[in-house]
């Protein structure tokens, strides 16, 4: 696509409302484009429609009209969650109409440099952390993208003195072409979202679009312990800074002394984060014990956040305090409270098995796990060794409740309970929390970490997490 200013008098179709669709529609309308917004949800489920109609923007809800698209449409901007198999997207591609996501539009609008952060797990935590670090360093960050504020809106509001810190999903990146961040990071890759992408190859290549336009003046931050990151590195034109918790790196950020590969926590009092600059000088950042959020995987998030922040211009000495003071993000290993000596944590954002594995490994205390959700046909077998080692009990709910109960039994657990209520989400969560509390002993951890998406019973993982917190406070 071209800059949005060039679409004056031209037809632009926006597929999907929500925050990003509204932002994109306003962007093109303000520049004189002839905008039509289409959402297949019924009109009463599209509260954003009235705001756009008041501006004179055409909004069509409830279906995809046959005449929505023709050769006269110049551009389609689709909500990232709409699959490429959806009829209007297929039709647009067949007509040769360019289809992009909001991220591509934001790139053309932004006068501020953009930091792009993606990965299967840890995106929101790392993005939020980078925002905190850049704020502490006086660099005026604006945190946006998949994390809340639409990137298009943030780009329009930013000046050259700001830095846009963007959490980016594979859905968003798949619809980019010219997009070029000045600092970009792929945190990790695991098998997820295949119902959208179809194949792991398409998922990886969608993530890799983050780097496709980067040049030698840019910096790509990659995790040396991730096989996909290592495989993509030779194709990236930017300078590469590596991060690792298990090995020293020539340029980037690592743990010293490194953790043994495959090992869990231990000897944190001896370990620290170290930045190795491009001249080979070493800069100690902070002791691992001082990091404000628990878990080995949060050490990995901290490594990436430090590297990204320094690449964006932060002084290494400015980063210790935001590393200490950070307490995590809602629904991501969020501490809820203590009841009868057991600690309760909300990790509702764990929508795949890898995220749940990392959460289980974050605690040394025995864990009573609450898991289950949308059934995507996964076998969950990789949970067995960690459940055997870390779990005291498992409570399952949602579509995958029986599958996960069988996995718990395979791990040798005898304290396993199944919540069969799938009709009332709030009651099901409350029952799961009560059952978990019955298993928990003083010193144990009760952890909601579903390993599944939420859409079987809940409108979002956020609502699932809020219900969990309410149930804990009601014990």
From TrEMBL:
<dbReference type="Pfam" id="PF21799">
    <property type="entry name" value="MurD-like_N"/>
</dbReference>
<comment type="pathway">
    <text>Cell wall biogenesis; peptidoglycan biosynthesis.</text>
</comment>
<dbReference type="Pfam" id="PF02875">
    <property type="entry name" value="Mur_ligase_C"/>
</dbReference>
<keyword id="KW-0067">ATP-binding</keyword>
<dbReference type="Pfam" id="PF08245">
    <property type="entry name" value="Mur_ligase_M"/>
</dbReference>
<comment type="function">
    <text>Cell wall formation. Catalyzes the addition of glutamate to the nucleotide precursor UDP-N-acetylmuramoyl-L-alanine (UMA).</text>
</comment>
<dbReference type="GO" id="GO:0016874">
    <property type="term" value="F:ligase activity"/>
</dbReference>
<feature type="binding site">
    <location>
        <begin position="119"/>
        <end position="125"/>
    </location>
    <ligand>
        <name>ATP</name>
    </ligand>
</feature>
<keyword id="KW-0131">Cell cycle</keyword>
<dbReference type="InterPro" id="IPR036615">
    <property type="entry name" value="Mur_ligase_C_dom_sf"/>
</dbReference>
<keyword id="KW-0573">Peptidoglycan synthesis</keyword>
<comment type="similarity">
    <text>Belongs to the MurCDEF family.</text>
</comment>
<keyword id="KW-0436">Ligase</keyword>
<protein>
    <recommendedName>
        <fullName>UDP-N-acetylmuramoylalanine--D-glutamate ligase</fullName>
        <ecNumber>6.3.2.9</ecNumber>
    </recommendedName>
</protein>
<keyword id="KW-0961">Cell wall biogenesis/degradation</keyword>
<keyword id="KW-0547">Nucleotide-binding</keyword>
<keyword id="KW-0133">Cell shape</keyword>
<dbReference type="InterPro" id="IPR005762">
    <property type="entry name" value="MurD"/>
</dbReference>
<dbReference type="InterPro" id="IPR036565">
    <property type="entry name" value="Mur-like_cat_sf"/>
</dbReference>
<dbReference type="InterPro" id="IPR004101">
    <property type="entry name" value="Mur_ligase_C"/>
</dbReference>
<feature type="domain" description="Mur ligase central">
    <location>
        <begin position="117"/>
        <end position="308"/>
    </location>
</feature>
<keyword id="KW-0963">Cytoplasm</keyword>
<keyword id="KW-0132">Cell division</keyword>
<feature type="domain" description="Mur ligase C-terminal">
    <location>
        <begin position="331"/>
        <end position="452"/>
    </location>
</feature>
<dbReference type="InterPro" id="IPR013221">
    <property type="entry name" value="Mur_ligase_cen"/>
</dbReference>
């Amino acid at each position: 696509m071209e800059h949005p200013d060039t679409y004056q008098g031209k037809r632009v179709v926006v597929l999907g409302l929500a925050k990003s669709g509204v932002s994109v529609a306003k962007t093109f309308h303000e520049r004189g484009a002839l905008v039509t917004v289409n959402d297949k949800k019924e009109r009463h489920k599209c509260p954003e429609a009235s705001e756009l109609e008041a501006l004179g923007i055409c909004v069509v809800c409830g279906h995809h009209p046959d005449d929505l698209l023709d050769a006269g449409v110049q551009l389609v901007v689709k909500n990232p969650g709409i699959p490429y198999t959806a009829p209007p997207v297929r039709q647009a591609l067949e007509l040769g109409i360019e289809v992009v996501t909001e991220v591509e539009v934001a790139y053309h609008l932004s006068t501020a440099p953009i930091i792009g952060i993606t990965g299967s797990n840890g995106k929101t935590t790392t993005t939020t952390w980078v925002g905190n670090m850049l704020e502490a360093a006086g660099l005026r960050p604006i945190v946006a993208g998949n994390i809340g504020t639409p990137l298009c809106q943030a780009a329009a509001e930013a000046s050259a003195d700001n830095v846009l810190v963007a959490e980016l999903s594979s859905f968003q990146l798949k619809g980019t072409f010219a997009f070029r961040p000045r600092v970009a990071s792929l945190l990790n890759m695991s098998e997820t979202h295949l119902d959208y992408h179809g194949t792991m190859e398409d998922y990886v290549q969608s993530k890799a679009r983050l780097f496709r336009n980067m040049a030698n003046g840019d910096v790509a931050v990659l995790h040396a312990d991730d096989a996909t990151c290592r495989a993509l590195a030779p194709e990236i034109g930017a300078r590469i800074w590596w991060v690792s918790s298990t090995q020293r790196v020539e340029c980037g950020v690592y743990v010293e002394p490194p953790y043994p590969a495959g090992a869990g926590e231990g000897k944190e009092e001896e370990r620290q984060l170290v930045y190795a600059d491009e001249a080979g000088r070493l800069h100690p950042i902070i002791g691992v014990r001082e990091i404000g959020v628990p878990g080995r995987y949060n050490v990995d998030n901290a490594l990436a956040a430090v590297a990204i922040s320094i690449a964006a211009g932060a002084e290494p000495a400015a980063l210790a305090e935001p590393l200490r003071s950070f307490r995590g993000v809602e629904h991501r290993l969020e501490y809820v409270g203590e009841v009868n000596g057991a600690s309760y944590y909300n990790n509702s954002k764990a929508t795949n098995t890898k995220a749940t594995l990392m959460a289980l490994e974050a605690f040394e205390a025995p864990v009573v796990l609450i898991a289950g959700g949308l059934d995507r046909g996964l076998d969950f077998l990789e949970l067995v060794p960690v459940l055997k080692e870390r779990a005291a009990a498992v409570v399952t709910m949602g579509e995958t409740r029986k599958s996960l109960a069988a996995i718990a039994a395979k791990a040798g657990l005898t304290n396993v309970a199944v919540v069969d209520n799938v009709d009332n989400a709030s009651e099901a969560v409350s029952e799961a929390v009560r059952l978990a509390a019955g298993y928990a002993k003083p010193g144990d951890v009760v952890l909601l970490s579903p390993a599944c998406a939420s859409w079987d019973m809940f409108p979002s993982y956020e609502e699932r997490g809020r219900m969990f917190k309410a149930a804990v406070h009601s014990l």
